[in-house]
Every structure is written in structure tokens, then in C-alpha cells.
């Protein structure tokens, strides 16, 4: 157990105020920075080298931020102007690595929060990847394939000059899946005249993509939840689970839950949620969401009597043993957490990035619920992206079983690291502190070794 010198805490509080001042109107970034800095006091007190002036200050300032115009004509010839972003946050451990998000809610603050989280997440994987994130306020919903292609081509026409297999390696996130990565890769190849497979991850399996990459974030989160339950002498078998979202992360979370004998009974989108007494039929969900690009109410219509669509409802009101928020940031607030606790939830594991608000996290932890923060629990996606980069570099591709074994080993190791680190710093069972400190130690050591840059 380490005691914290009051001056460390004061210095961190002062830095947080400064972050809020220097980055106005970026509430999500403030939230992500606060959540990390508030847990660092014990490690800064215990390891004086980390308290070196400038180290934490450098960590919260992106190495580079790019904002650019993305004009594109729609199918009727009308020109739209979106804004593109790439925040290259920290490259102490490897090339910047992190997804691209295409969603109307995207702004610089959202991308900075995601990039900041990515630094620690990527460090926790133990692989050689730095942290970055990008995206656009473009809304792919309701757009034709041709429109999405023109947008992606325009986006890449600027982005290409900032990325590269040794520099910065984007991938998918909300609104960016295999289709978008294909169009982005095509345009990069055309502009640069290089077959540089390692410049993007999440590629199609036939042209440089890794098997299990589409499944990796969801599968990894379920493995993390299972590891937290194992720590308490339980497993996922027979547990009722609620999952929010219905995109890539939610779908493969549901698939893995079923494989491990759990019963996932929900999925959702921005219009409401579905509760399915018989358990979600993942093949039907894939058909509706991935093939038809439809909404979850269609799933309920087709599924028949066991499923019900609740328009505008909060999925967290459905009683469950385990909850896996897999939609978006701040989707689970204190009221939702209270409902989960009332219904006897044992574990909450974040498939999305920062889905639980700080109040919700606090409430869950106070109630003794095992809580897996996204930067640990959903690291399986980016970890398999790094394995995709390794395969691209070696000009080879691994069988699915090999990738899945490596993913399982990485998730076990992240769980152990977070658990042991939390215990070492006097907060056993607190995966938030464990993840933040363990990720920080790895990045900070590399930054110290590489000098003031
Ligand atoms: N967008 C994913 C994440 O939040 C994956 C990033 C990647 O594969 O680079 O971690």
C-alpha cells in the first residue's frame, strides 16, 4: 500500500484545470483525462521518476492534430462538406494506432478522448503500438455505396500524407467497417502507387486482412468478463446478459456469449432496444445489420413471439447477471447503474469506449460489481489489428485458430496485469486503477527513455 503525498494530488488537480482551460468545449476529452489522472497519484508518489516535470503534461498533449476539409458530391451532384480529423496522440511505443469514426457526433474533443484512451489501451496489449484516432462528422447512414465510396476517397486524398505502416495505422470504429476500409485502402494505393498492406487494418481477409479481426473486440470483451467472473469463482455459463448496441462489437459479443453458454437477451440502437426471451439469434441479427444495414426493430419483427422492441427504452432496465455496454460513450449513467445493481448485476464490462459515466462507474464499484474499463476490456480489437500488421509485415496470414489463441492469451494477460497492478497499489479488484496505472507505466517508461520530445 502506497500513501500519496498531498502535493502530487494537488499538482494533478492543477493540471486538470489547465487541461480544461486549454481545450475548451471538449467535455469528453476532459472526462477521459480526469478519469486517468485521478488514478495516477499513487504511482507518481511511489515512482519519483514519473513525477519529473513535463512527463504527464506531455502525455495529455497530442503529438500532432490534423483537421481537414472533406468535400464530396452526393448521388444527385450536390456537394457536401464534412470535417476530417486525425489526432496522433503518442508514438512512444510504436506507430500511432487507432480507428476512424464516421458519425455526426464526431468533433475534435471526441477524437481526442478516443485517442487518449487508445494510448493506454494499446500499451496494455503489450504490443508495439502507439495511440491515435481519427474520423469525420460524416453520417454513412442512408447513404448509397457510391456516396460512401466518394466520401472515403475524398477523406483519404488528404489523410494519405499523414499515415503509413511505420507512421500511423488507422482502422475501423463506429461507422467504419470492412466496406469503408476497402474504399480507403483503394484510394491510398492509387495515390501512393504502393501496395502497403500495413497502412490500414480491418482489411478484407482476401487482401491482407487478418482472420478474427472482425470478431476480436467482442470476443475479447467476453473473455475479459469471463476472467473477472473467474476471479470471483464464477463463470459465464447460464448467466443472463444484456448487451447494448448492434454493430460489430455487439454482434460478436453476443456470438461469443452464446458460445460460452451465456444467454444474451438484448441488443439496441439509437431508436430503442430489443429483448428476446429465447436469447438473441445472432445469425438473424447479422442478416439484418450487416447484410441489410437495417435497424433492430426489423430483428424483432422477423424473430416472432419471443422478441419485443421497446422504442426509446434503456436496455439497462432489463434484469441481468452481466452487462456489456457495446454502443457508444456515456450510454450508461448513474440511474442505469442503479437499475443494474437493483437487479443483481455481478459484472459490467465495457465493449465500447467510455460507455459508463464516471458516476455510473463509481456506483457500480461501490456496490461491489466487477467493472472492466474499455481500455482493458475492449483491447482485443486493436490487439488483433497489431497481429494483422505483423502478418502484413511478414507477408503471411495465420489460420483463425492461431489468431484466436493469441487473442485469448492477450486478454488473459491484460486481465492479470490490471488485477495485479490494482492490488500492488492498494486497490484490489479496481480494474480502472489497475488499467490506468499499468498502461501509464509502460508508456511513461518509454517516454522517459526517449527524452523530451
Ligand atoms: N476502434 C477500435 C478501438 O477502439 C480498434 C482500433 C484499431 O484496430 O486500430 O480500439
TrEMBL record:
SUPFAM superfamilies: Aminoacid dehydrogenase-like, N-terminal domain, NAD(P)-binding Rossmann-fold domains. Homohexamer. InterPro entries: Aminoacid_DH-like_N_sf, Glu/Leu/Phe/Val/Trp_DH, Glu/Leu/Phe/Val/Trp_DH_C, Glu/Leu/Phe/Val/Trp_DH_dimer, Glu/Leu/Phe/Val_DH_AS, Glu_DH, Glu_Leu_Phe_Val_DH, NAD(P)-bd_dom_sf. It comes from the Bacteria. GO terms for biological process: glutamate biosynthetic process. GO terms for molecular function: glutamate dehydrogenase (NADP+) activity. Belongs to the Glu/Leu/Phe/Val dehydrogenases family. SMART domains: ELFV_dehydrog. Gene3D superfamilies: Glutamate Dehydrogenase, chain A, domain 3, Leucine Dehydrogenase, chain A, domain 1, NAD(P)-binding Rossmann-like Domain. One of its GO terms (cellular component) is cytosol. It comes from Streptomyces parvulus. This is Glutamate dehydrogenase. Keywords: Oxidoreductase.
Amino acid at each position: 500500500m502506497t500513501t500519496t503525498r498531498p502535493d502530487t494530488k494537488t499538482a494533478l488537480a492543477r493540471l486538470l484545470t489547465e487541461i480544461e482551460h486549454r481545450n475548451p468545449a471538449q467535455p469528453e476529452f476532459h472526462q477521459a483525462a480526469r478519469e486517468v489522472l485521478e488514478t495516477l497519484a499513487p504511482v507518481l508518489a511511489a515512482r519519483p521518476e514519473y513525477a519529473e516535470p513535463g512527463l504527464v503534461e506531455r502525455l495529455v498533449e497530442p503529438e500532432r492534430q490534423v483537421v481537414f476539409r472533406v468535400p464530396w458530391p452526393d448521388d444527385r451532384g450536390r456537394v457536401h462538406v464534412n470535417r476530417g480529423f486525425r489526432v496522433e496522440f503518442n508514438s512512444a511505443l510504436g506507430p500511432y494506432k487507432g480507428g476512424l469514426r464516421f458519425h455526426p457526433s464526431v468533433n475534435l474533443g471526441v477524437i481526442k478522448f478516443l485517442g487518449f484512451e487508445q494510448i493506454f489501451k494499446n500499451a496494455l496489449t503489450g504490443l508495439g503500438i502507439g495511440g491515435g484516432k481519427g474520423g469525420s462528422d460524416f453520417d454513412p447512414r442512408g447513404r448509397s455505396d457510391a456516396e460512401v465510396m466518394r466520401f472515403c476517397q475524398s477523406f483519404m486524398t488528404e489523410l494519405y500524407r499523414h499515415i503509413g505502416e511505420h507512421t500511423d495505422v488507422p482502422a475501423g470504429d463506429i461507422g467504419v467497417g470492412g466496406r469503408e476500409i476497402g474504399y480507403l485502402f483503394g484510394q491510398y494505393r492509387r495515390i501512393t502507387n504502393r501496395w502497403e498492406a500495413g497502412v490500414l487494418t480491418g482489411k478484407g481477409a482476401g487482401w491482407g486482412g487478418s482472420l478474427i479481426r472482425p470478431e476480436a473486440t467482442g470476443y475479447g470483451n467476453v473473455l475479459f468478463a469471463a476472467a473477472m467472473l473467474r476471479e470471483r469463482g464464477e463463470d459465464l455459463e447460464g448467466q443472463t446478459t444484456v448487451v447494448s448496441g448492434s454493430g460489430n462489437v455487439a454482434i460478436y459479443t453476443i456470438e461469443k456469449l452464446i458460445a460460452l453458454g451465456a444467454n444474451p437477451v438484448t441488443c439496441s440502437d439509437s431508436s430503442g432496444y430489443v429483448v428476446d426471451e429465447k436469447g438473441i439469434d445472432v445469425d438473424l441479427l447479422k442478416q439484418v445489420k450487416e447484410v441489410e444495414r437495417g435497424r433492430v426493430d426489423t430483428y424483432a419483427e422477423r424473430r416472432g413471439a419471443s422478441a419485443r422492441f421497446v422504442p426509446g427504452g434503456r436496455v439497462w432496465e432489463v434484469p441481468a447477471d452481466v452487462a456489456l455496454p457495446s454502443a457508444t460513450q456515456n450510454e450508461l449513467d448513474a440511474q442505469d447503474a442503479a437499475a443494474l445493481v437493483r437487479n443483481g448485476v455481478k459484472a459490467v464490462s465495457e465493449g465500447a469506449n467510455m460507455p459508463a459515466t464516471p458516476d455510473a462507474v463509481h456506483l457500480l464499484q461501490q456496490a461491489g460489481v466487477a467493472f472492466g474499463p474499455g481500455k482493458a476490456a475492449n483491447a482485443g480489437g486493436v490487439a488483433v489489428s497489431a497481429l494483422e500488421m505483423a502478418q502484413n509485415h511478414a507477408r503471411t496470414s495465420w489460420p483463425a485458430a492461431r489468431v484466436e489463441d493469441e487473442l485469448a492469451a492477450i486478454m488473459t494477460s491484460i486481465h492479470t496485469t490490471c488485477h495485479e497492478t490494482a492490488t500492488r497499489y492498494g486497490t484490489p479488484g479496481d480494474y480502472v486503477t489497475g488499467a490506468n496505472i499499468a498502461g501509464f507505466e509502460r508508456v511513461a517508461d518509454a517516454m522517459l527513455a526517449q527524452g523530451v520530445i
